Amino acid sequence: METIELTRDCEAVQIPGGDTVTLASGTPVDITHTLGGTYTIRAGSGLFRINPSDADALGKEVVQSSKGQGGDVTLERV
Q1: How many CB atoms within 10 Å of residue 54?
Q2: Pairing of strands 10-15, 46-50
Q3: Sheet of 20-23, strand order
Q4: Which of 21, 46, 47, 76 is the most exposed place for a label (fewest CB within 10 A)?
């Protein structure tokens, strides 16, 4: 498990409730799980899901979606 502080305010979805909240910059969080560019984090008040577009708030690289690009799978595209 990796512990970091958010580098900016960030939208997060509460687990399991599904409510969207804003976590403040500087909030310490534990990254508990990553999958497909999304992050599950634990903050003081519970578990949250962070979308790939907000990965930079965790100090991670934002991965651009490849939806709709189609075509052959090649080593260059992976």
Answers
A1: 20
A2: antiparallel
A3: 2-5, 28-35, 38-43, 46-50, 10-15, 20-23
A4: 76
User: Which amino acid belongs to residue 12?
Assistant: A
pTM of the model: 0.76
Could you identify the residue written with the tokens 């003081």? 44
Task: Give, in degrees to the nearest 5, the angle at Cα 5 between 11 and 23.
Answer: 25
> Two tokens at 19?
């409510």
Q: What is the pLDDT of residues 19-31, one digit of tens each?
A: 999 999 999 999 9
Cα 63 from chain centroid (whole Å): 10
Q: Which amino acid is at 26?
A: G
